[in-house]
């Protein structure tokens, strides 16, 4: 992985008054470019081949320029050009997945956030060590041979839900598992899924204070998963099983949510615990992150996963959410990222938020 010193040396040649926000044209790029434009920063879209035409339909979210590559795995080849343009990479789920984790970790361009978090986030064993070390309640792990009720089987890495499946016994597990992939088996928690969108700033000192910096909770969503969210229109679970129709969990969209206000102390406490543990383990995750949770009918919150960067569920709130509007009217996660970059530049602390 590229070192902090290497990033520091690169930043010595950057013009802090002429920074550009760059990301791959996918996932949450419209929001990232829109937020950067609102903050007066230049934008660069990285795409394969011809720039996607749909950006022409959204002038307020169209990047100022595009850089084309033959493959996202070729992004390291354009690193010198990105550095020449004072570019700061904003990673998102598709960026890391398409480019590949190894190439992302070695990319010689200043990147928003702490890249070290990827080692903890993408490996579900280390992710559990992190979250349980933070005192977070997680679904119980189950050995395949001990499956005697519904469990969720998940593969490691960001796959947008593709390939995940539910098994009710060992036989169903064997029928569906891909042994070539690393996987985790968790008990299935009955409840409502809430995806909580936070932002941790090591620079701001006003607000919900942590041991260092502040925590914000900007929004929350629920994911629309195909075909799991519609499949039971075809019949009961037994009828589906008899028809050999299996639910899948590929994310196709997002739905806005708000939580009972009485749950907000718990929600902030969860975010605080996770950030504080990250500071101990790997120097802290910086910027936006999402806790993927289930709220039970006993008003318990179980965390089953973390995404340590901007998530696509924030795209619902490109002009603010019921929560972010209490901080600043019209504040999106994309805009908040650009605000943090500008604040770091003003305070001459870019090295604190970039890696």
Distinctive features:
single chain, alpha+beta, Rossmann fold, D-amino Acid Aminotransferase, Chain A, domain 1, 3 domains, four-stranded parallel beta sheet, globular, manganese, EC 6.3.4.23, nucleotide-binding, ligase
Summarize the structure.
This protein is of the alpha+beta class and 355 residues long.
Give the SSE layout.
Layout: H1 4-11, E1 20-24, H2 29-38, E2 42-48, E3 65-69, H3 79-84, E4 87-89, H4 93-99, H5 101-106, H6 117-121, H7 124-133, E5 151-155, E6 165-167, H8 170-176, E7 183-187, E8 192-201, E9 208-209, E10 214-227, H9 237-242, E11 249-256, H10 264-282, E12 287-295, E13 301-307, H11 333-346, H12 350-353
Parallel strand pairs: 1-2, 1-4, 2-3
Antiparallel strand pairs: 5-6, 5-7, 8-10, 8-12, 9-10, 10-11, 12-13
Helix pairs in contact: 2-11
- Protein structure class: alpha+beta
Question: Spans with pLDDT under 50 lasting ≥5 residues?
Answer: none
CATH class of the largest domain: Alpha Beta
Largest sheet: 6 strands, antiparallel
Q: Cα distance, first to last residue?
A: 10 Å
| CATH-level-2 architecture of the largest domain | 2-Layer Sandwich
Which geometry do the CA atoms define? Answer: globular
Structure explained in plain terms:
This protein has 12 helices and 13 strands. The protein is α+β, with helices and mostly antiparallel strands. Strands 8, 9, 10, 11, 12 and 13 form a 6-stranded antiparallel beta sheet that branches. A 4-stranded parallel beta sheet has the order 3-2-1-4. It has a 3-stranded antiparallel beta sheet with strand order 6-5-7, with helices on one face. The mean pLDDT is 92.
């Amino acid at each position: 992985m590229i070192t902090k010193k290497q990033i520091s040396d690169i930043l010595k040649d950057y013009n802090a008054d002429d920074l550009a926000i760059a990301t791959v044209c996918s996932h949450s790029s419209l929001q990232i470019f829109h937020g950067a434009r609102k903050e007066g920063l230049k934008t660069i879209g990285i795409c394969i081949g011809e720039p996607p035409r749909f950006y022409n339909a959204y002038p307020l979210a169209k990047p100022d320029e595009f850089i084309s590559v033959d493959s996202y795995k070729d992004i390291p080849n354009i690193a010198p050009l990105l550095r020449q343009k004072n570019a700061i990479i904003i990673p998102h789920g598709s960026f890391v997945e398409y480019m590949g984790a190894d190439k992302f970790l070695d990319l010689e361009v200043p990147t928003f956030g702490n890249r070290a978090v990827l080692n903890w986030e993408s490996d579900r064993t280390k992710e559990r060590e992190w979250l349980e070390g933070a005192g977070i309640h997680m679904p119980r792990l189950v050995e395949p041979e001990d499956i005697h009720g519904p469990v969720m089987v998940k593969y490691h890495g960001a796959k947008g839900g593709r390939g995940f499946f539910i098994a009710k016994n060992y036989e169903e597990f064997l029928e569906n598992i891909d042994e070539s992939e690393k996987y985790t088996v968790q008990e299935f928690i009955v409840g409502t899924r809430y995806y909580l969108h936070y932002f941790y700033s090591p620079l701001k000192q006003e607000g919900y204070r942590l041991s260092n910096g502040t925590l914000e909770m900007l929004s929350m969503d629920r994911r629309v998963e195909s075909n799991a969210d519609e499949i039971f229109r075809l019949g009961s679970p037994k009828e589906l099983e008899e028809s050999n129709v299996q639910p899948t969990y590929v994310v196709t969209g997002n739905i806005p949510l708000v939580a009972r206000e009485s749950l907000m102390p718990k929600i902030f406490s969860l975010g605080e615990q996770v950030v504080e543990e990250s500071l101990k383990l790997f120097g802290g995750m910086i910027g936006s992150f999402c806790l993927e949770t289930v709220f039970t009918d006993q008003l318990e919150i179980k965390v089953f996963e973390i995404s340590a960067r901007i998530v696509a569920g924030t795209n619902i709130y490109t002009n603010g959410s019921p929560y972010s509007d209490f901080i600043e009217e019209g504040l999106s996660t994309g805009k908040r990222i650009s605000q943090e970059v500008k604040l770091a530049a003003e305070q001459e602390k870019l090295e604190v938020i970039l890696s």
